[in-house]
TrEMBL record:
It comes from Sinorhizobium americanum. HAMAP family: ArgC_type2. Belongs to the NAGSA dehydrogenase family. Type 2 subfamily. Pfam families: Semialdhyde_dh (PF01118), Semialdhyde_dhC_1 (PF22698). This is N-acetyl-gamma-glutamyl-phosphate reductase. InterPro entries: AGPR (IPR050085), AGPR_AS (IPR023013), AGPR_dimerisation_dom (IPR058924), AGPR_type-2 (IPR010136), NAD(P)-bd_dom_sf (IPR036291), Semialdehyde_DH_NAD-bd (IPR000534).
Length: 310
C-alpha cells in the first residue's frame, strides 16, 4: 500500500510548492481537499486522520488546531511547517544536516517541525562553529537577512503583486521585524546552541523566491587562533558526506564580487560562504537558499522521504 500524504493548507504558498514537488511521485497517494473546502474543519479532520503523514502548511494557530484534531490517533505522523513546534522538546527538528544523528531522529519521529527559512541559514552557519568551539559562549551574534516576498505567504504576495491592493507594498526592499522580537529568534537560539538570543534583522526584496542570511563576526573575539581557513574547515567537516548543503571553497568565494539572492530560487539546496580578507579582523558568514526550497517546501519533502524510509 502506498503511504497516504495529506497537505493541510495545500492551496497556500508552501503547500502548493510541496504539491508541485510531489507531482509525478507514483510511490505516494496524495489525499486532497478541494480549495473551496480548505477551511472545512470536519473535512480536514477526516483527511488528517486518514493520512500516514500529514504536512501542515498553516498559520501557527491552525497548526496547533490540526495537531489537536489527531490527538486520539496514534498512527498519523506530522510534519509542521509553521513556527508552532520548533522549540518543542518532543518534536524532532527537521534540519537533517544540522547533526550526523539528525536524519535518524527525523526518520523515527512521530512529530517533525520543519525549520523556518531564516533559521535554516542562521543555524546552518552558527551551529557547526559552536560545536567546533570556535564561537565562544556569550558571543553577541547578529543575523541580517533578505528574503523573497513569497516568504510572507499569500497575503504579502498579493500586497506586492496586486497593484490595486488596499495595503500595497511598493518598496523594492524593506526592513521589518523592527521591534526585534521575530518569531524565528527562539529556534535560532536553541538549535544554534547559543547562550544569548541573536539580534535578528530580516528584510524583504522585490523578488519572489530566494534568501541571503548573513552572520558577521569579529575574528579577535572567536577562539584563539581562529582564521577564515579554520572557520571554513569546520564548516566543510561538518557538512562532509551529504549533497544538500554546499560549503563553497574559500578560493571560489574570494573571486566573487557579489551574491545574487535569487541564485538558488527553485532549488532545494543551500550554499554557505566564508568571506573576508586573510589577516583581516572580520569574517562574514553567508547562507544562500530559496525561502521556499530548503527554507520550507523542499525541506518538508526531504523530511517526508526520511520518515518514509523508516
Ligand atoms: N512562505 C514561506 O517562505 C514559508 C512559510 N512557512 C510557514 O508555512 C506555513 C504556511 O505559510 P504560507 O504557505 O506562506 O502561507 P499562505 O498564507 O500562503 O497559505 C496558508 C494556507 O493555509 C490556509 N489556512 C489558513 N488558516 C486556516 C485554517 N484555520 N484552516 C485551514 N486552512 C487555513 C490558508 O487559506 P486562506 O487562503 O483561506 O487564508 C492558505 O491556503 C506558515 O506557518 C508559514 O510560517 C515556513 C517557511 C517558509
Ligand atoms: C518574508 C516573511 O514575512 N517571512 C516570514 C517567515 C517565513 C517563514 O519562514 O515562515 P515561518 O515563520 O513559518 O518559518 C516572516 O518573517 O514571518
Amino acid at each position: 500500500m502506498k503511504p497516504k500524504i495529506f497537505i493541510d493548507g495545500e492551496h497556500g504558498t508552501t503547500g502548493l510548492q510541496i504539491r508541485t514537488r510531489m507531482a509525478g511521485r507514483s510511490d505516494l497517494e496524495l489525499l486532497s481537499i478541494p480549495e473551496a473546502e480548505r477551511r472545512n474543519a470536519a473535512m480536514r479532520e477526516d483527511l488528517l486522520n486518514s493520512a500516514d503523514i500529514a504536512i501542515l502548511c498553516l498559520p501557527d494557530d491552525a497548526s496547533r488546531e490540526a495537531v489537536a484534531m489527531v490527538a486520539g490517533n496514534n498512527r498519523v505522523r506530522i510534519i509542521d511547517t509553521s513556527t508552532a513546534h520548533r522549540v518543542a522538546p518532543d518534536w524532532a527538528y527537521g534540519f537533517a544536516e544540522m547533526d550526523k544523528t539528525q536524519p535518524a531522529k527525523i526518520r523515527d519521529a512521530r512529530h517533525v517541525s520543519n525549520p523556518g527559512c531564516y533559521p535554516t541559514g542562521a543555524i546552518g552557519l552558527i551551529r557547526p562553529l559552536r560545536q567546533a568551539g570556535i564561537l565562544p559562549d556569550g558571543y553577541p551574534v547578529t543575523v541580517n537577512a533578505v528574503s523573497g516576498y513569497t516568504g510572507g505567504g499569500k497575503q504579502m504576495i498579493a500586497q506586492i503583486e496586486d497593484e490595486n491592493h488596499a495595503d500595497r507594498i511598493s518598496a523594492p526592499h524593506f526592513l521589518y521585524g523592527l521591534p526585534l522580537k521575530h518569531k524565528h529568534v527562539p529556534e535560532m537560539k536553541m538549535h544554534g546552541l547559543l547562550e544569548r538570543a541573536p539580534v535578528f534583522s530580516p528584510s524583504v526584496g522585490k523578488f519572489a523566491q530566494g534568501m541571503i542570511v548573513q552572520v558577521p563576526l569579529y575574528l579577535d573575539d572567536l577562539a584563539a587562533g581562529t582564521t577564515l581557513e579554520s572557520i571554513h574547515a569546520a564548516l566543510a567537516v561538518h557538512y562532509a558526506g551529504q549533497s544538500i548543503v554546499d560549503v563553497v571553497p574559500l578560493a571560489e568565494s574570494a573571486r566573487l564580487a557579489r551574491i545574487d539572492a535569487t541564485e538558488l530560487a527553485g532549488m532545494d539546496t543551500m550554499k554557505l560562504f566564508v568571506f573576508g580578507t586573510p589577516g583581516g579582523a572580520h569574517v562574514n558568514l553567508v547562507a544562500l537558499l530559496d525561502n521556499l526550497g530548503k527554507g520550507a517546501s523542499g525541506a518538508a519533502v526531504q523530511n517526508m522521504d526520511l520518515m518514509l524510509s523508516a
